[in-house]
Amino acid sequence: MASTKELLQMDLYGLLGVEGKATEKEIKKAYRQKALSCHPDKNPDNPKAAELFHQLSQALEVLTDAAARAAYDKVRAAKKQAEERNNRLDDKRKKIKLDLEARERQAEAETQKTEEFKITRTLEEEIARLREEGSRQLQEEQRLIREQIQKEREWRLNAQSTHADLPSAQQDKRKVTPKLKLKWKCKKDDDTNGGYSQEVLQGLLQKYGDILNIIISSKKKGSAVVEFSTVRAAELACKNESGLTGTPLKISWLEGQPVSAAPPGPDYSRTGVFTSSQTSLSSERDYESLVLMRMRQAAERQKLIEQMQREDEEEEVAKT
């Protein structure tokens, strides 16, 4: 545990990202989220991650113990009041204050104000007690984190093994970004294209997830292709979006329609381990996929344009 002086310089609430009035449940939740990302087992080559994990553990120890937290809050409140008083002083009074403090430091170098000494001493005693007794809550939280990290490792290995066993054609299919075909009724001489533009479609569909491309056909009105970054976003848009009231959308899959192949993730609800890391792990995979898709975005966009042109030409031929 850090020394009392070090703790006095740390903003324990800020370190955990919670308010000063946060409940114990909120403090534990914040600790879990931050400690998981910087756990030494997940960052073996990053010494700063280990240091941050240690500081988070110290913050949890103090803020989940009622007596230690009360003592820390008093020190924190005293510092805040002193800062507020200092901020209210004008330049002239600040100079007077600095001169006075210099004389006081010279005359009372070995003394402290009675109240400050008392609350600091109380915090020291509480920290000493925690050091002797150990923090049961901290040990329990760290045990849960270790269990979750192990489950995530097993899940990754299982997912990698399943992916390796898939036929090459199915693996190639999984690499295709999800694309939807949009159609709506529109007259040939309608300059507004039925009320749809790239901005309008972006506004309607972005609530379902990140959009990589929106291509509106330049040859045939009432037709567009939308490329999403994730299959889930495309699924939601396909199932739920109806478009503008006067000119509803007809949405169908063009590419990347999902196939159930991935193994289920670990069930955290049975063990009591918090489930926020499921989201973080999924987000990590989505981010990696998104980076790769961004690299191919220009080529995909050109491919979409060419594909739409071919489809429009085929439809024109079929009509004639």
Automatic annotation (TrEMBL):
Coiled-coil annotated residue ranges, if any: 72-151
Domain of life assignment: Eukaryota
GO biological-process terms attached to the record: spliceosomal complex disassembly
Renumbered residue ranges of the record's region Disordered: 257-280
PANTHER family: DNAJ HOMOLOG SUBFAMILY C MEMBER 17
Function: May negatively affect PAX8-induced thyroglobulin/TG transcription.
Protein name as catalogued: DnaJ homolog subfamily C member 17
Organism field: Hemibagrus wyckioides
